Amino acid sequence: MKPVSRRTLDWIYSVLLLAVVLLSWGYVIYASTVAAQRQLRKEYPDKIFG
């Protein structure tokens, strides 16, 4: 296995960091929408929220 260049390693680390950031933001957005739906159901139990 030949050695990997520094530029390639930097690119791989950048892509991995971007993936982690995007996944974490996706989780934050998903969790906040779930919490908002629960809160709405608690405050307005007779309404239907899709």
SSE diagram, text form:
Layout: H1 6-43
Can you describe this structure in just a few lines?
It contains 1 helix and no strands. With 50 residues, the chain is mainly alpha-helical. Keywords: Membrane, Transmembrane, Transmembrane helix.
Low-confidence stretches: none
Distance between the termini: 53 Å
Strand content: under 5%
**Helical residues, percent:** over 70%
Largest sheet: none
Could you tell me the radius of gyration in angstroms? 20 Å
Task: Count structural domains.
Answer: 1
Number of extended strands = 0
Order of helices and strands: H
Molecular structure report:
- The chain is mostly helical and 50 residues long.
- The protein has one domain (1-43).
- The protein is built from one helix and no strands.
- The chain has one helix spanning 6-43.
- The longest helix has 38 residues, at 6-43.
